[in-house]
Structures are given as structure tokens and as C-alpha cells.
Amino acid sequence: MHSPVATKDPSAVAAAVQSAYLTAFPEGDRMFVPRIFSWVVDCFTGRLDDYQPIDVKYHDFEHTLQATLCLARLLLGRHLAQTQPVLPRPLFEMALLAALMHDTGYLKKKGDVDGSGAKYTVIHVHRSAVFAAELLGRKGVPATEIKAVQNMILCTGINAALDAIPFQDSLERIAGFALGSADLLGQMAAEDYVDKLPLLYSEFAEAARHNQDKKSFVSQFTSAADLRRKTPGFWQDYASRKLERDFGGLYRFLNDPYPSGPNFYIARIEANIARLRRELAEQPAAVT
After folding, report:
1. In angstroms, rounded to a whole number, what is the distance separating the alpha carbons of residues 149 and 125?
2. Distance of alpha carbon 254 from alpha carbon 70, whole angstroms
3. Where are the domains of the chain?
4. What is the CA radius of gyration of the chain?
5. 10-282: which CATH topology?
6. Residue 245 neighbours by CB distance under 10 Å
7. Predicted structure pTM score
8. Span 8-40, pLDDT tens digits
9. How many Å apart are CA 136 and CA 107, to the nearest integer?
10. What is the pLDDT of residues 221-267, one digit of tens each?
11. What is the spatial distance between Cα 13 and Cα 5, in angstroms, rounded to a whole number?
12. Among residues 215, 221, 183, which one has the least CA distance to residue 202?
């Protein structure tokens, strides 16, 4: 089983990701993971000249670290399974960059004092892709690699049109679908996922106030309690199907041992959903 990692600690997550990266690619650049983590720590803590620290409570830096850790484990599992086609080291590296930057679209520029970054929920995926291009361009990353990072980030949108993403090749698509899988798995498997659902609702509510489309995903919930009631259905009818159908069942590379061992992430999600169902069942019926 996967060793526990303190996902509130960027250093602990970086060490686990480094271990996965070097296990897959012993000849890899030992400074790559520390370097990109330092970039993203700067992004989320307000050390960039033109951006504030992250100020959302659900899609916070820990959420990014959870997704990145899950992605590294998934890609390592696929690599060790010797699945064809083999994902080459540069794409593994770009996938890690995409994971670390997939929610930078919640960051606010300095001088933006209206609300929190949650107001950008509906457009945060696009903002994240633009942010990644700007930052990676400054760091001297080649244009084709920046495009790969952007395409992978586009896989994380709740209503992502996967068929419309201009992947440069099939391997890039696999990496993007792995990131989309890790984004769902990392957050829903968190020990405090159920407890943080009211924070997620707060983000949706703020986004709905800033969004003119009343049919958008963020406008579908009337309260934190309503979001809690609908979350088991979200897992059963949307997330689990997306993992299986849209993302090609890549989550199975987290089975430990592969292919028939237990899947820590799926087990944790099912435990969270079971807990939520129990709590919902124990609530007194609403008086009408």
C-alpha cells in the first residue's frame, strides 16, 4: 500500500513525488522535482511579483499537492506495469508540471480585491492554462512542452470537452487523462473531504454570484446541505463513470500491487461516500 504522506506539507509531497520520478527514471534530473515545486510554492504563497497568495479554502495548495501526489503514483504504476506505449520522461515531467499548475487559475492578481479567487471557478481551467504558459515561458520551457502542459490542464475541467483538446499526440492524451483522474481521486480520497464540502459550496456560491449562466455547474446547489445530499450521486453518476469511461480506467494503475491489488484511492473515496450516506440518513427529516 502507498505510504502515508502529509499533503499539507509541500516538502513531504515533493519527496514522495521525487521518489516516484526517480524510480521510473533513475537517470532523471534530480533537481527537476525540487525546482518545479519551488516555482509553485512561490505561486501559491504570493512570492510572484504580480500575484497574491491563494485565498480559496477548498481548492487550496493542499488540493494541488493531493492531485500531484496521486498523479505521480498513477504514472509510476503505469510505468512499472510496462504498459505500451511507454510514457517518456519528458512527458512524465510535463504531467507533473501540469498537476502543480492545474488550479493556478484561482490565483488573484495584486490589486484584485473583489472577493476571493473562487469567483473564477467557472473559468479557472482556462486561467490556469494561461498562467502556466506565462510562467513556463519565463522559465525558458520550450513552446511544445508548454502546449503539452496546457492541454493536460484542460483535462481537469468539470465539463471538459476532451475530444476538442488539441493533443499533440496520443501519449500526451494519456498523460492528460491521468491528470484528470488524479484531480478527482486526490481530492475525493482525502480524509477531510466530507468535512470540507461546506467550503466547496462556499466557492460555488461565490462563483455563481459572478457568473451570468444560471445553468452552470456552480449554480446547481442551493446550500451546503444540498451539496452534501448530491455528492454521493456525483460520485456514482459522474466521477466514477468519468474515471472509467472518459479517462480509460487509468486509475487502475493505482492498484497495489497491479493489476489485482487494492486501490487505496477508490477505497478511501468509497469510505467517504459511505460516511456521508450514514450522516445523511441520520439527519432528521425536514419539516414541510
Report:
1. 12
2. 8
3. 10-282
4. 19
5. Catalytic domain of cyclic nucleotide phosphodiesterase 4b2b (1.10.1300)
6. 9
7. 0.96
8. 999 999 999 999 999 999 999 999 999 999 999
9. 16
10. 999 999 999 999 999 999 999 999 999 999 999 999 999 999 999 99
11. 7
12. 221
